[in-house]
Amino acid sequence: MDALLQAAAPLFAAAFSLWGSPVTWLEIVAFVLGVAMVLFNLRVNPLGWPMAIASSLLYALLFANSRLYGEASLQIFFVVVALWGWWQWLAGAGHDGTALRVGWMTRHQRVVAAASTVAAWPLLGLMLARTTDSDVPFLDALPTVASVTGQILLGRKYIENWAVWLGVNAFSLVLFGIKGLWLTVLLYAVFLVLSWVGWRAWRQIERNHG
Q1: Which listed residue, 35, 115, 142, 150, has the most CB atoms within 10 A of its CB?
Q2: Cα separation of 123 and 141, whole Å?
Q3: What digits encode the pLDDT tens for the residues 183-195?
Q4: Are 76 and 56 in contact (CB under 8 A)?
């Protein structure tokens, strides 16, 4: 990772300052790609996935440079899941063998998703506390594990993914504010609004198909 950060050093040049903190060119490009990704997801358009891959790679560098190692590792995971999600949206099938479409989780699936997220949070927090120099290991761990849940649900076109993203984005506003990543704070504020829009839009899609 150190070698990648050194290679990407020109991208960390400040484009301007926002509330006393420099905003880098890397953060600007990642911001634009992130917004484009969510807009495509709102429309259930598979082109959102390559946008997600590019944005995640850039944010991995940005977060590693800010010592948010959980968030940086999450971005690499996002790349892998984005490849899987892209394939799911293009060729995946539901439990009945038909083409994958927007729908609701079962009660059992919701319980499993929630329990897995809650159980993984302190485990990741302890790992970050003991193996990295992160100064916010547990704050970093919570949106990290919840984002894994949200990304998997998005890949399977479950409407509940938007509820998970609502929580993740709201919490991330605080985390990135602590780190002074103000353009990213703005991005996650946009994500927060778009998560609500996505929740409503996908519910309408499900009703229309139902």
Answers
A1: 150
A2: 9
A3: 778 888 999 999 9
A4: yes
Within 10 A of 7 (CB to CB), how many other CB atoms are there?
A: 10
Which alpha helices (DSSP H) does the chain contain, by range? 2-7, 25-42, 48-65, 69-91, 107-131, 137-155, 161-178, 182-209
Q: Which distant-in-sequence residues (6+ apart) come within 8 Å of 189 by Cβ?
A: 169, 173
Strand partners, 182: none
Task: Quote the pTM value.
Answer: 0.83
Residue 84's domain comprises 2-209
Q: Is 85 helix (H, G, I), strand (E, B) or coil?
A: helix
Per-residue pLDDT reduced to its tens digit, 51-93: 999 999 888 888 887 777 777 887 888 899 899 999 999 988 8
The tokens for 24 are: 């880098």
- CB neighbours (10 Å) of residue 39? 16
Q: Is 59 exposed, middle or buried (0-12, 13-18, 19+ CB in 10 A)?
A: buried
- Indicate the angle between helix axes 137-155 and 161-178, nearest 10 degrees: 150
88: left (phi over 0), alpha (psi -120 to 50) or beta: alpha
The token pair at 71 is: 């968030």
How are beta strands 21-24 and 14-18 bridged, if at all? antiparallel
Number of structural domains found in the chain: 1
Q: How far apart are CA 12 and CA 85, in angstroms?
A: 30
Q: How many degrees, rounded to 5, is the angle at CA 30 between CA 25 and CA 32? A: 100
